[in-house]
Each structure stands twice: as structure tokens, then as C-alpha cells.
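Q: Structure for this?
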Amino acid sequence: MITLTHYLVLSAILFTLGVVGVLIRRNAIIIFMCIELMLNAVNLSFVAFAHYLNSMQGQMFVIFVMTVAAAEAAVGLAIIVAVFRNKETVNIDDINIMKW
Amino acid sequence: MEAYLFYIVAAITVLSGVYLVFEKNPVFGALYLIQTMLSIAVLYILLEAQFVAAVQIIVYAGAIMVLFLFVIMLLNLNIKEEKKNALPFQRIPAILMGIALFTVICIVIKSKLLQGKGDHYTTAYMNSMGNTKIIGTLLFTEYLLPFEITSILLFAAAIGAIMLAKRKL
Amino acid sequence: MLNLVALILLFPLLGAAVNGLIGKRLQKEHVGYLACGVIGLSFLVSLLVFCGLLLLPPAERLFEKEVFCWIESGSFKSVVGLQVDPLSTLMILVVTGVGFLIHIYSIGYMHQDKGYHRYFSYLNLFTFSMLLLVLSNNFLLMFIGWEAVGLCSYLLIGFWFEKKSASNAAKKAFVVNRVGDFGFALGIMLIFLTFHSIDFTEVLSAASHGHFEAGSFTITIITLLLFMGATGKSAQIPLYTWLPDAMEGPTPVSALIHAATMVTAGVYMIVRCNALYMLSPFTMTVVASIGAVTALFAASVGLVQNDIKRVLAYSTISQLGYMFLACGVGAFTAGVFHLMTHAFFKALLFLGSGSVIHALSGEQDMRKMGGLRHHIPTTYKTFLIGTVAIAGIPPFAGFFSKDEILLESLTRGNFIYWSMGALAAFFTAFYMFRLLFMTFHGKSRLDHHAAEHLHESPRNMTLPLTVLAGLSLFGGFLGIPGASAIQHFLSPVLGGHGHTEISGAASGGHHGAGLPYLMMVVSTAIALGGIFLAYYLYIKKPELPKKLAERFRLIYKLLLNKYYVDEIYDVLFVNTTKKISAQILWKFVDVKMIDGSVNGIARLVRGFGNVLRLLQTGYIRNYAFYIVLGCIFVVVLAVFGK
């Protein structure tokens, strides 16, 4: 029998993978994809909770998260394009103007 | 039957996630991510969230990931892109910290801190009404305000993306 | 009618505010009319208050009006409250009356000045401050007025601030006054510690009802500290040096502030606190001695000065010395009486000298004057009255008041006080007539330029002179020995100690009935002697003073240079302070300690920053790492922290 815990652990694995990806990768687009992975992990736990609690709130939330993710993807990719246009790179270690 | 399906799909999901994180080529990375999303969609169906599964495939795997691929192609990125590594010493601590984070999350899951209140949307009820219909009703009744705000958010995002993509900022 | 008392304060403040804020945009005449108008109104209200007070029976002539509570903290309470009693009423009449005349005079005197509205704004502000000082019902509010008149004095002495000497004199006045104010402030604090109140009525009634034994150490210290404040404001030894320099200001200012009103603040304060002073014989001796010495000292300096205003300045110091002498021997009424008559004739003399200076286009050196009486007759006539009044010839105002002080100093004090006072009176008569003769009589020693522009002052300047001359003539009758109206009026304030009623003729009873009359004859003789000597030296034998100066070169030089007091102060205090400031306070305390600590803190912060900035790599991944670390930490805390 598959329980809620199974799904949550799976979700945790995916989320951790995303975090590790963000921390060790340098390509901005891959980092961005890792963030999407984290979002998906969270969505999975939402739906799992909804299912096991006989509730709809989780699913509703997932829909909104997806919308936000879409908006984020549009703006984020636009930023990456703009940065690439200026810097000729998407390696975030080259974009280190946080410290002047 | 259901359990086997879950284990297989979960394995695929995790594997493609691992590949995504460690794949050099961003195009392959994007493909692995699509693979992950598709398998998550399967999991949604297992969880009887058919509408969300459909949206997951259409919006995520379809639209968003196409956007990603499109940008990757547009910028003509290749493997050399990650040549410079300013923080080589962060790799091992990051992986260790990932393990720590996973441990902490597992502890939280096990500790039963996450308790929710049940509702009346049982499987039988959902099957009688239809998942999509329920979601639609809720979106335009209980969740009307967030729904409308989402439209503003999307609108703003569209304008922002156009502004950023313009040649002269 | 007594309720109107707040208006007395309000009018001048309003005038000062209007002239100060928008005076630049007003027409010149309007500025002048406004300034005079508010003081005039204030004077009228003062008269009303005076009448209101007269309608009350003498024992009940005390009215207090609390405008609002100012500070209340623990047991300390200070209200903005006004007190109307005979003493303060007399003072406001003098301040607003003389002030009004001087305001009118100023319209003519200052008509060409660029800072016309500024001048009148200051003058109104001064009047307000002085009225606040005399009307306040507690020490703290009095101190506010006290400081405010000091401020106005500073502003007005330095009115022509483009002139280096004027701004220096202003600074000097301010700093020297600060020394006295320091004592005054300490005195107020000590009063609060001792009496747990700073209200005049409470403190003074506690003092006069025998809660403290006479000669108590605390009371002596309090009174000495208050007296220190008085020496600063009223220009007594050792803090008098600012007053002669204060003549750098416009002449009407000298008349109003440095002769008629502000410098009497110290006298007023001591008279107000008479109950305290009566408890401390030692302080009384100090006050009387300093008063007597100052009277003689300043008069002797006045003998040889050549600047017309400087002579009057030293004369002022000398006359203030008389007032302190009177207070010191316990004759407070005589002190107040002299304060009033002095306000009349000294204002007259200063305004007269201003008229002379005006006529001569700014010349102040008496050696370049002479023979002016035909050219400026009105000024001459009024000036003569003022001179006779200050010299002490009956029946002019100065005679009665000075005679009373001399008499009191003999009957209540001792022969030394009297002889010093008498000698000072002799000097006074001499230098005043020397001034008169050198200025108005003899041959003209004018230079060509001044002689051409010689003219009598306009009507708005001579009118106040005439009024003040009238007051100098008849003001003395208020205090005729034996039937003194002023003593009768002031007795509710000063009569509670069984001292003041034995003034004049009454006190003569102890020393033989003839003494007051004998004293009158003696002091008249002294005055006439001084006048005669001046006449002999400056009219009969004008070459003689020079010879005398040659003969007694040393004394002459000593007097001409004012006993070198300024130079001594420079060496003792000014240069020492400068040196201490430069060597210790600046180079060590400021540079090493204060700057050092400030810079040290900055260096410390920079050091920490240099270490902490290593965390700031500028790489986003690095920051993300910390964020995740923080997240783990927060979750761990949330789960295990319970």
C-alpha cells in the first residue's frame, strides 16, 4: 500500500536534488530548471496531501503555483536573455557584480 | 499493481532528476526535466488529480519547457559554458548539505508535525462529479479572487518579459 | 485690571515677531510706529495694572497669574506665572516708560540705518525679556528673562557687527555675563534643593518666617551665588569690564539697556530676594563692600576718560555700585528709589550724548567738542538738568536718592561706607561737569567737517529728552525723606522685616534729629565742591588739567587705562584659558581623546568589516548556500527547539 509518506519522501528527494543543483551548477538556465524541479516537488506533495486528506485545496494550490511558475519562467528567461546580450555569457560565476 | 507503478515511476522521476542535476549539456538537461515532469504527471493520475496532471503536461512539459529549449537554442549555449568555476570548494559541502536537508525533511515527515484537516472530497464523490468540474466550480466561487489576481500577475509578467527582451532597455 | 498683566508681555513680543519676520518688507515708518506702538500699549497696560494695584489695600497688593504649567517632573514644578506686586509694578513702569521714550528717540536716531527693522525687533525683544524678568513669579522664569536680556544685549552691542570692535565687545559682554549667570543658575539649583520650590512667594515666605536661622551656611552660599549673577548683569567688580565696551552699540541701546533697565536687573533680583539676603549678614557685607568699592573705583576711572559715552558708562557702573551699597546695608527702598531716578537721568544723559554724537556726525571724543551749547540748545538744556540731577543738587531727582543712600550707609553701615560713597559723589559731580564743560562750554574744538554739519536733533529726539528732563527734575519728590511715597508703596514687599520703615527722618531719631538735614547739607556741599573744581579746571584755567596730568603722570596713566584691569584679566583669565584650551583641551582632549575615540570606533568597525566582507564573495551560488544553511537551521530549530 502506498501511503502519504511515500509521496512526501519522493517529493523530498526531488526537492533536495533541485537544491543541490542550484548550489553546484553554474549555467543559469540549468539552475533555473533546477528551481522548476523544486517547484514540481512541492506540487507533488500538495497533490499527495490533497489526495490523502480528501481535500481540494492542494490541487487548487498547484494550479496557482503553475501559473506563478509560468510567469516566473517568462520573466526569468527574459532576464537571462538580457544578461546574455550584455555579458555574452550565462555562467553566473561570470556575473558576479553583486560585489563591486 | 498500483504500488509497482508508483515505485517504477518514482524511480524514473528520481533518476531523471539526478541526470538533470549532473548533465553537462543544457539541452539534455531540459529533456530530462521534461521526463521528470511527465512522470510526475503520472503520479498525479495515481493520486486521482486528472486535471492537474493534464495541466502539468500541457503547461509545464509543453509550454514552459519549450520556452526553455527555445532560449537554449537561441543563445546557442554549449558544454563549454560552465568553464569558469569560482567556487570549486562548494561542490562537496553542497552535496553534504543536500543530504542534511533531506534528512531534516524526512525527520519532519516522520515527526507527524504535518497534520491536515480532512474534507468531503472523497474518491467516490470526485468520481461522481468529475475532477475538472469540481476544480472549475471552485475556481469561480471560492478561489475567484486569487484567480483574478493571477490574471494580473500573468499580465504583468508578459509586459515585464517584453520590456526585458527589448533590444534597448 | 490685574488680569491684563499678560498683555504687557504680549505686546512687545508681538512687535518683535512682526518686525523680525516681515519687517524687511514693511515701510520704514511703519516699522518704527509699530515698535513704539507696542511699547506704548504695554506702558498703558502697565499704568492700568498700577492703578489696579493702588485700588487694593496695601496688605493685599500681591497678584499672581499662572499662565501655564511649564515643567513638572517629580517634586520639581515650574510654571510660567506672572507676579504683580508693588516692586514689579514699579519696575514695569520704569521699563516700559523709559523704554517707550527711547523707542521714540530711536526713530530719529536710527533713521539712516540699514538694519532699521532688525534694530527695532531686537529692542522690542529686549523689552519683552526685561518685563519677563521682572514679572516672573519664580526663579526659573526669571532666569529665562535674565538670559534673554543677555542675549538681546549681545545682539544690540554687536548691532553694527561689521565693525570688529563691536562684535568683540558683544562677545565680551556675553562671555562675562555667562560667568555671572553660572553663579545664578547654581544658586537657583541650591534654592530648589534647600526650599524644594523655586516659587518666589514660597521661598521668600519660608525664609522670612524663620525656618532658617540667620547666618546659616546654605543661605550664605545661595545669596553669594545669586549675587555673583547680579555682579555679572549689573556690572560690579569683578565682572564689570563688559559694560564700558558695550558702548559700541547704538547710543539709544546704551541708554535703554546699559544704563536704564537691564543693568538694574541685578539690583532688582537682590531686592526681590531681600528676605534671603536679610538672613545672611556676611553676604550683606560683601554686597555693600563691593557696591562701595565699585562706586568709588568706577567714578575714579570716569575722571579722566575722554570718550563721552565711556564717561557715562563708568558713571553707570558707579551709580549701580550705589544701589548695591544701599542693598548691602539693608536699605532696599533706597536702592530701588535710586534705581528709578537713575533710570531717568542716565537715560536722559545717554540720549543727550547720543544727540550730541548725532549732531557731530559720529564724533565721540570730548577733546574734539566744546562750545556746543549755542548750536544745540535743547540738548544742552536737558543735558544740564541730567548732569545736575546725577551730581546731586537739590531738588533734582538724584539728590534725594543719593542722599538717602549716603544717609543709610552711615546710619546702618559704618563711616567707611559713607566716606567711600561721599568721595564717589564728589568724583561724580566733578566728572559729570567736566563732561558738560568740555562738551558744551569753552571754545569750539570741532574739526572742519563736523562743524559744517552741526545741527540740532529732530523733534522726535528732543521730545523724549524733554520728558526725561522733567522726570529727572521732579522724580525725586516721590522719595522726599519723611514723606516718601515710594517707600510707602514698596512697604508690602520690603516692609515685612522691620527695617525699612526706619528710613530717612525716622532713623535720624537714633542719631539726633538733625542728622538727616546735616547730611543733606554735607552732600550738597560735596556736589558743589565737585562742580566748582570742574569749573575751575575746565573753564577758568583750561591749561591746568594738562599740567596736573603731567605732574601726576603715574596716577593719570593708571586712571586713563582703567587701572589696567582689562590687561590683567587678559593675562590672568583670557590668555590662560586660551592656552589651556589650545594645549590641553584641543590638542589633547579633542584631537587625541575625542577624535581618537571616534576614529577608533570607525577603525574597529572597519576591521570587523574587513573580516566579514570575506563572506561577501559576490557569487550568487555562495549566497544561496547560506540561504539553504539558514533554512535547515530554522527547520531544525522549529522541530527540535520545542
